Amino acid sequence: MAVFIKQSFYKQSITKNNMDYQEYDLIYRSSDEVERVAPKNGKEYKLEELQEIVGGWIQICEGNDGNILVIDEEGKLKGKDINERATQWYRTHVYRNDYIVGDALLCKKERVK
After folding, report:
1. Most buried of 18, 31, 63, 89 (most Cβ within 10 A)?
2. Is the pLDDT assigned to residue 89 strictly greater than 90?
């Protein structure tokens, strides 16, 4: 089953004189669910936030599309379940012959410092 999901979402809120946009990132859960999230401070993720999302030490996988995938560095050693959605992105934008396990955060490179 192929499902296409935009890699970045924008929430529109209308103020009195203009429109503001909030950019969301995606958490690909190994349970095949997708969640929209944003950094707590609205600009960039802190290390603790990333570790909480992936459930361990982080590893950053840079894609050829300006996005990064943040994963649990020790996910395979911990025996986490394969993440089909994250694996699909990874094989398209990073490396074809590997797979991703556990929960993963997909976001723009600028959101992680």
Report:
1. 89
2. yes
